[in-house]
Automatic annotation (TrEMBL):
Membrane topology value: Multi-pass membrane protein
Primary location group: membrane
Transmembrane segment boundaries: 29-50, 56-76, 117-137, 143-161, 168-187, 207-230, 251-278, 298-321, 349-370, 382-407, 419-438, 444-465
Localisation: Cell membrane
Annotated Pfam families: AA_permease_2
Keywords of this entry: Cell membrane, Membrane, Transmembrane, Transmembrane helix
Domain of life of the source: Bacteria
Protein name: Ethanolamine permease
Species in which this protein is naturally found: Falsiroseomonas tokyonensis
Length: 483
C-alpha cells in the first residue's frame, strides 16, 4: 500500500496488519459511569485550588468569576453533548478540531489539551500530599513519596482494566460527594457573612469586591478549577456501550452536579473559620473548615475522608490523559508506540506510563530546583495556571470546531442538538479568550503562560518536521477525510 497524501501537506503512511488490533479498547461505560467519570475528574476542585481566587478577588470577585466561568462551561458542555455522539471517537477535542480545521488545527488542539491533562494530576496529587502531610504529620522533605505512591497505585488501577477503572471512579465519586454534603451540612450553622467579607478592601472598593472588577478577572483561572476536566468525557466514546445515547446524558448530568457543588462549596467555605482571608491562602480549605467546626482530632479523621475527593479526580484524570495520548499516538501525531494497549485488558498502558512519567518528572524537577517552599508555590499556583491556560486554548478551539461543524457539515447525524447552538459556543470562546488575555497580561500568571507556549511550539515543530509524514487513518482521521 502506498502513502496517501492528505490536506495541509500531511501524509498517511500504511501500517502493518494487526495495527489497530494491538490498539483496541473495550466497551463498558453506561450513563452512570460517564457521569461519575466527569464529576470525579472535577470534584477535587471543590477540595483545593479554587479557594486561591478568594485571595485575589475577595468573596464577591470569586462569586462573580464563578458565574462567568459557569456560563463558559455551560456553552462548552452543550456543544460537547452535540459533537461527541456525532463524532464518537476517543480523540475528543483533537477529533472535533481535526474534522473542521484540518490536521494542523487538530494537533494544536490536542497539544493544548495534553498540557491540561498531564499537569492537572500533578496539581491534584500535590494537594493530596498536602492533606496527607497535615493528617499524618509527614515532614516536608517526604512529600514526593506521597506523589510517587499515589501515582503508582492509581496508575496500576487504570492499567488493570476499564471495568475496574469505572467501578473505582463511581465509588470514589459518590464518597467524595458524601464528604462534601457532610461539610455543607456541618458548615451551615456556623456560616457568617462577615467572615466571607473579611478581606480588607482596597481604597475605593467595597467589602464585597475588595479588589474591584480587576479582582473578578484575577479570580477567573481559579473559578475554572470548579469545572476543569468535565470536557474529558468524549475521550471515553470508544469505551461507551452507546455513545450516541449515553454521552450527552452523562455530560449534562455531570455539569448539573458540578454547578451545585461549586456554589455550595464557595459560599459555605468562605463564611466559616478564618473566613475568606484565611481560606484564600489555604492549601487544604475543606480540612481547615472541618477544623473550625469540629476541632483537631475529629477534623483529622474527616480530612482523611476528604482526601477521597482528591483521589477521585486524580484517578479520573489519569484515565483522561491515557486516552488523550493514546488517540494522538494511534493517529500518528505522537510516536505510535504510545498507543499500544494491554493485550488482555485493552487499556492504553504505554500512554498511561508516558503521561505519568512526564507529570512526575515535572514535579520532581520543580522540587529539586527550588526546594520545598518554592515548589509549594509553583506546583500549587503556577502549574494550576498552566493547566488552565492549556484548557482555555482547547476550549477556544472546540468552540470554533462546533461553529464550523454546524456551518460546514449540517447534514451529519446529530443524535443530540445543543439548545444553546452557535451563541453558546460563541459565549464559550469569548470567555476563554477573556481568561487567556488576563493570564497573558498579568505578570503573576505570565510565568505559567510561557512554558505552555513553549511546549506547544516544540510539539508543532515536531509535527512539521516528522509527525505530519507519519499519520494513520484512525477512525477520527477517516471521518475527517470523508466529504
Amino acid at each position: 500500500m502506498r502513502d496517501k497524501v492528505g490536506p495541509g501537506g500531511v501524509t498517511y503512511a500504511p501500517v502493518a496488519a494487526g495495527y489497530f488490533e494491538s490498539r483496541g479498547l473495550r466497551r463498558h461505560a453506561g450513563v452512570a459511569s460517564l457521569w461519575a467519570l466527569g464529576v470525579g475528574a472535577v470534584i477535587s476542585g471543590d477540595f483545593s485550588g479554587w479557594n486561591f481566587g478568594l485571595g485575589v478577588g475577595g468573596f464577591g470577585g470569586m462569586l462573580l468569576a464563578t458565574l462567568v466561568i459557569m456560563t463558559m462551561y455551560l456553552g462548552l458542555t452543550f456543544s460537547l453533548a452535540e459533537m461527541s455522539p456525532a463524532l464518537p471517537h476517543t480523540g475528543g477535542a483533537y477529533s472535533f478540531a481535526r474534522s473542521t480545521m484540518g490536521p494542523w488545527g487538530g494537533f494544536f488542539t490536542g497539544l493544548a489539551e495534553n498540557v491540561e491533562f498531564v499537569l492537572t494530576p500533578t496539581v491534584v496529587v500535590f494537594f493530596i500530599s498536602t492533606y496527607m502531610g497535615a493528617i499524618f504529620g509527614t515532614p516536608g522533605w517526604a512529600m514526593p513519596l506521597w506523589w510517587l505512591g499515589f501515582y503508582a497505585v492509581f496508575l496500576a488501577l487504570n492499567i488493570w482494566g476499564v471495568e475496574l477503572s469505572f467501578r473505582v471512579t463511581l465509588v470514589v465519586t459518590l464518597l467524595a460527594l458524601a464528604v462534601l454534603a457532610l461539610f455543607w451540612i456541618s458548615a451551615l450553622p456556623h456560616f457568617r457573612w462577615e467572615l466571607a467579607l473579611n478581606i480588607p478592601p482596597e481604597p475605593g472598593h467595597s467589602a464585597f469586591l475588595p479588589f474591584g472588577l480587576g479582582g473578578v478577572l484575577a479570580a477567573l483561572p481559579f473559578a475554572v478549577w470548579f469545572f476543569l476536566a468535565i470536557e474529558q468525557l468524549p475521550l471515553a466514546a470508544e469505551e461507551s456501550h452507546d455513545p450516541q445515547r449515553d454521552m450527552p446524558r452523562g455530560i449534562l448530568a455531570g455539569m448539573a452536579t458540578l454547578v451545585v457543588t461549586a456554589f455550595l462549596t464557595l459560599v459555605l467555605t468562605a463564611g466559616i473559620g478564618g473566613g475568606a482571608a484565611q481560606m484564600g491562602t489555604s492549601a487544604e480549605p475543606i480540612l481547615d473548615g472541618f477544623r473550625a467546626i469540629y476541632g483537631g482530632d475529629l477534623a483529622r479523621l474527616l480530612a482523611l475522608a476528604a482526601v477521597i475527593g482528591l483521589v477521585a479526580s486524580f484517578h479520573a484524570i489519569l484515565f483522561a490523559f491515557g486516552r488523550q495520548i493514546y488517540s494522538l499516538s494511534r493517529a500518528g501525531y505522537l510516536p505510535r508506540l504510545l498507543s499500544l494497549t494491554h493485550p488482555e485488558r485493552k487499556t492504553p498502558v504505554a500512554a498511561l506510563l508516558a503521561g505519568s512519567a512526564l507529570g512526575l518528572s515535572i514535579m520532581l524537577l520543580v522540587w529539586l530546583a527550588v526546594g520545598e517552599e518554592g515548589a509549594t508555590t509553583i506546583i500549587g499556583t503556577t502549574l494550576l495556571n498552566m493547566a488552565v491556560f492549556g484548557a482555555m486554548l482547547s476550549y477556544l478551539m472546540q468552540a470554533i470546531a462546533f461553529i464550523r461543524l454546524r456551518l460546514t457539515r449540517p447534514d451529519i447525524p446529530r443524535p443530540y442538538r445543543s439548545p444553546l447552538g452557535i451563541p453558546g459556543a460563541v459565549a464559550t470562546a469569548a470567555i476563554a479568550l477573556l481568561t487567556l488575555a488576563w493570564q497573558v497580561q498579568d505578570p503573576a500568571y505570565r510565568a505559567a503562560v510561557l512554558p505552555v507556549a513553549g511546549w506547544i511550539a516544540v510539539g508543532m515543530a515536531y509535527f512539521a518536521l516528522r509527525g505530519r509524514h507519519r499519520l494513520v487513518l484512525s477512525p477520527e482521521e477517516a471521518f475527517a477525510m470523508r466529504r
